[in-house]
Amino acid sequence: MSHRSAVFNRQLPDDLSELLRREGIFPDHAWMAVETDINLSGNYEPGWLIAEPDRILVVSQPTTAVPAPVRLLLSRESIKEIRTRQGVGGGFIDALVEGIYVEVIGYSNARADIFHKAAKKLKQWVEGQQPSIHPDDDRNPRKCLKCGMTLQFKGDMCRRCVDRGATFMRAVKMMRPYAGKAIFMMCLVVVNIAIGLVPQKLVQLLIDFVLAPEQAHNRIPESPRSWLLALVGALLGTYIFAAVIAMIIGRLASFVGTQITYDMREKVFNHLTKLGIDYYDRYNVGQLMSRVAGDTEQMKGFVHQMTFGFVAQLIQVATVGVMLFTISWKLAAFTLLPAPLVVLASVFFWKRIYPRYYRVWDANSKLHSALNTILSGIRVVKAFGQEDREQKRFGRSSGYVRDSFRGVEYTVSMFNPAMGFIFQLGGLIVWYVGGMMVLGDKNLSSDLHPYTLGRQLQFLGYLGMFYGPLNSLTQLTNWLTQFLTATQRTFEILDTTPQIVQVEKPHRLPAAASIKFENVSFGYNRHEPIVRNVSFEIKPGEHIGVVGKSGSGKTTLVNLIARFYDVDDGRVLINDHDVREIDVDDLRKNVGVVLQEPFLFRGTIFANVTYGQRDATAEEVLAAAKSANAHDFIMRHPLGYDTYIGERGAGLSGGERQRVSIARALLYDPTILVLDEATSSVDTESEKLIQDALKRVTAGRTTIAIAHRLSTLKNSDRIFVVDNGKIVENGSHEELMALEGLYYRLVKIQTELSREPSIDRLAVEKK
Amino acid sequence: MTQQTESDKAQPQDAPEIDQTHIRFLTPEMCVIHLGSHAALHVTVKNERIYGGVFAAYAFPVAYPQGYISLIHSVGEGKDREIGLIRDLNDWPAEQADLVRAALKRRYFIHTIQKINHIGWKYGYISMNVETDKGPVEFMMSWQYDRAVDYGKGGKTLIDVEENRYLIPDVSKLEPHEKSEFTRIIYW
Ligand SMILES: Nc1ncnc2c1ncn2[C@@H]1O[C@H](COP(=O)(O)OP(=O)(O)OP(=O)(O)O)[C@@H](O)[C@H]1O
Ligand SMILES: [Mg+2]
After folding, report:
1. pLDDT digits (tens, 9 = 90+) for A313-354
2. Considering CB atoms only, which of B3, B42, B78 is closest to A724?
3. Average pLDDT, rounded, for chain A
4. Cβ within 8 Å, pair A736-B2
5. Do A354 and B184 touch (CB under 8 A)?
6. Which are the contacts of A179, defined by CB distance < 8 A and separation ≥ 6?
7. What is the pTM for the complete model shown?
8. What's the gap in Å between A273 CA and the centre of ligand 2?
9. Can you give the residue ranges of every domain in chain A?
10. Ligand nearest to the CA of A553
11. pLDDT digits (tens, 9 = 90+) for A222-238
12. Which of A252, A351, B108, B136 is spaced 20 to 30 Å from A521 by Cα?
């Protein structure tokens, strides 16, 4: 063992090594030494699995409870088998000793990858092979090469290392295509704010020059009526102008807002369709729905904030503030007195209220989920008469939404009047101090720039325009967090790398024929292989039947051919090319799959049959349907192929649905046809017909058919018997019968059952 | 060309068929739970046989953490067979119940969070500094819906980047400030 690996040839602590040496154990000479983090009591304690040429040991630092460093010692002869077993949050290596699986060592999930590799090596060792350790073994495709962070899956990008840029800037960047419009819009916003200042100025002019000029020491105008008219005219002009500008801003904001929401939604959806099936195993559809529909809406809110929200308000606070100071800096200073109080109170308030907004989001998304689940399962609900319960359940969800909204709004409705009160305090100061100034208090007012009644009213007007936005500005952090979390949720989808990725230069696949599995292992969860080390070869044009118990992994196995999932180990080859190197479109075109649960979309039968082949002609569709034995039942519908079917194929029977989906696959004209119990809910007679039809259309095609009814497989060239993720028997019907193995037993059971003459019928009719 | 692989290879011991169509409840009268060779958990069912290499699993880990515990025996080839269910551990002699508890603790490597010291958040990752029944732990978890899943009525199970598990049995029982910090980030 000249190669040493940092992970599989661990250096033990010196004192422990010394202790072991005294007992004649030399960890440095072992061919493998792996470190674990937990002991078999489920507590954190470092331990080492040491493998010597003829025995394995588990050692730990001595403790008061267990003074001996060696916790377990097994000789190689005594071990018949090594396996890993998954617990919850961790796992074990077990050894089969004297007919008993002994737990050798436990590890937490953090170390599961390492121990799975170690177990593989131990297996080789038990079987008498020379296990090898390479420094390469230390490489872990599930760890980021840069920072060592565990990735979600092999090949995922490390979020810590990738510079994602601030979410906010990404949102701003979404607006880039509309930059011109956005800038123009912002200019208008500034103009709009400026116009907003005009009416108060007109009030001042009205009072100080027309209505009460004496108090302002102004001359009494000669024709106050025409002055009045002029001012009213000016006000009218301002209003018209403001209204027009607001309209333009509104239109622009709506245009840009809806457009980038649309862009975002489209991006998210397009990305969702690219994500692997495993993604949908993990996320629930209702959740994703609320993301696509709801979270993307936030982009619109963002534009709204720019035009009427916080950005506009910030500008307004600044300009009004300047105005206040120019009118009377002394008074302005007084009015600022409550401002810190307002800011403080708001910050405190939003910190408290904010989590409640989260709850509103949560409640809404749960409501979506509940609705989605109940409505898609409505048949089951009715079948079990659970309408009442679902109504109650929905009521609870809905009540949760109501309560969480109330929770927020009650508090908000307390807060706003309280804030209003504080503003009015500011107003009171202005009333009093400003009033004193108007009355001519020499201490406050200067002769140069007399404070008039008009100015006082103007000031009071501006004060409202100053405090209002100030109050809502304090909600800025709140809004920002909400916006950022929503966009984060959408960006999270966008940042998920599709697990099925196309290689740089994919192989084109003109026509596929042969399939080969080389030591393929695959599991939905990282450490639970469902397909275990499977190898086989299928020649072009061969017809393969696959049988096995429910849950044995048949569907999983064939899904690997169409590359719905990528293998964890080994290779799947089509025409001697790894499927991962084949152009995905070509692959899908060549591999036709009839799924176990046929899914039909809402639409006409014609649209469903041509789903994969939009340009198919009517005649091709007729031919495919005829082959699938679907033509006759379709023709029984008054609208024929234009019959509209509902969600998931509602309106068709189970067998009819299957036949439509077979027609869909046949139309696709794939060179490899995968039928996953395509005829399971079809009666024996139609099944025979479909079989015959399939035989015709599958001539020359490589066909893999999974079936529970073994009679359907008699025509297969070869039959694979799958058990527990392995192909345990493989041969023709006759060969397998002669073998008297699992297949033989399955056939025997089925013939026994079908001696009951009507059972097959019954099973069909029950569906 | 035919092949036959290990499935029919002799099983560890010729397991007598346990009726797998009925639930069998184990009682202290009919069987003894004890440690055998190499400290492996054994179950001896009277008038039946000794099962070695047994492990225990909860049927309802959330709803009944004291009962409905399945004792499972491996028959090889990755296949397991249930010996029977324990209805309630409290009905069993203390030392036997403790053996089962230890086996459960081995199988369920879950940290129970007792106190949250700090929650940070960066780039879609949440960093947590917590006190657990297994001592203080700092971990990172990705900020995703499927990484913090409901546990029973008010609890949450957190799954960190290493796929280790952390349990908060009842979020509402956290200290108020911990709770608001927690729900601020894990709001679903
Ligand atoms: N998406 C999934 N995520 C996790 N586990 C899965 C998933 N799909 C299937 N499994 C598990 O993988 C195993 C094999 O499933 P598979 O669908 O391949 O069985 P099958 O042989 O096709 O069974 P059947 O005859 O009932 O269709 C089962 O134990 C199942 O629970
Ligand atoms: Mg299946």
Report:
1. 888 888 888 888 888 888 888 777 777 877 787 777 766 776
2. B78
3. 81
4. yes
5. yes
6. none
7. 0.66
8. 23
9. 14-138, 164-495, 515-766
10. 1
11. 787 888 899 899 999 99
12. B108
Facing residue for A100 by CB, picked from B1, B2, B36: B36
Residue A534 CA, ligand 1 centroid: distance in Å:
16
At A347-400, the pLDDT tens digits run 777 667 766 776 777 778 778 777 877 887 887 888 778 888 888 888 888 888
Distance A550 CA to ligand 2 centre (A): 7
Quote the crossing angle between the two packed helices A224-274 and A285-293, to the nearest 10°.
Answer: 150
Taking alpha carbons only, the member of A585, A601, A579, A606 closest to residue A667 is A606
Give yes or no for residue A502 having a pLDDT over 80: no
> Tokens 């929503």 — which residue?
A486
In sign, the C-alpha dihedral spanning A647, A651, A657, A663 is: negative
Rounded average pLDDT over A276-298? 74
Handedness of CA A638, A641, A643, A649 (dihedral sign): positive
Q: Distance from B25 to chain A by nearest Cα, in Å? A: 23
Residue A166 has pLDDT above 70, yes or no: no
Higher pLDDT, A524 or A684: A524
Which atom of ligand 1 sits closest to the CA of residue A559?
18
For Cα atoms B79, B83, B87, give the angle at the middle one, nearest 5 degrees.
130
Most confident range (mean pLDDT) of A141-150, A544-553, A603-612, B90-99 is B90-99
User: What class has domain A515-766?
Assistant: alpha beta
- From the options 2.60.40.10, 2.30.42.10, 1.20.1250.20, 1.20.1560.10, give the CATH code of A164-495: 1.20.1560.10
Average pLDDT over residues A607-621: 84
Interface probe for A, chosen from B107, B125, B179 (most Cβ of A below 10 Å), is: B107
Question: Which DSSP state fits A143?
Answer: B
**SS3 track for A361-416:** HHHHHHHHHHHHHHHHCHHHHHHCCCHHHHHHHHHHHHHHHHHHHHHHHHHHHHHH
Q: Which residues of B touch A40 (CB under 8 A)?
A: 106
From B124, B162, B187, residue closest to A492, measured CB to CB = B124
Cβ contacts of B78 on chain A, cutoff 8 Å:
83, 532, 724-725
Q: Is the predicted pLDDT of residue B33 greater than 90, yes or no?
A: yes
The domain ranges of chain B are 6-107, 110-185
A231, burial (CB in 10 Å: exposed 0-12, middle 13-18, buried 19+): middle
Pick the CATH number of A14-138 from 2.30.29.30, 1.10.10.60, 2.60.120.620, 2.60.40.1220: 2.30.29.30
- Given this model, what pLDDT does residue A474 score? 63
Mean pLDDT (whole number) for A515-533 = 85
* Count of CB atoms situated within 10 Å of the CB of A352: 12
Please tell me the predicted confidence (pLDDT) of residue A746.
84
Q: Which of A555, A675, A724 to mutate to test the pocket of ligand 1 (most atoms within 8 A of CB)?
A: A555
A596 CA to middle of ligand 2, Å?
6
Q: Which atom of ligand 1 is nearest to the CA of A722?
A: 21
pLDDT value for B86:
92
Question: Hey, which of A285, A524, A593 would you mutate to test ligand 1's pocket, going by the most ligand atoms within 8 Å of its Cβ?
Answer: A524
Q: Do the bridges between strand A531-538 and strand A515-522 make them parallel or antiparallel, or are there none, so unpaired?
A: antiparallel
> Which DSSP string corresponds to A476-515?
HHHHHHHHHHHHHHHHHHHHSPPSS---SSPBP-SS---E
User: Which residue has the CA at smallest separation from atom 9 of ligand 1?
Assistant: A556
Distance CA A253, CA A172 (A): 14
Residue with CA closest to ligand 1 atom 10: A524
User: How far does the centroid of ligand 2 lie from the alpha carbon of residue A554, in Å?
Assistant: 6
Q: What local confidence, expressed as pLDDT, does residue A622 receive? A: 87
Above pLDDT 90, what percent of chain A?
A: 8
Q: Across the A/B interface, how many CB contacts are shorter than 8 Å?
A: 159
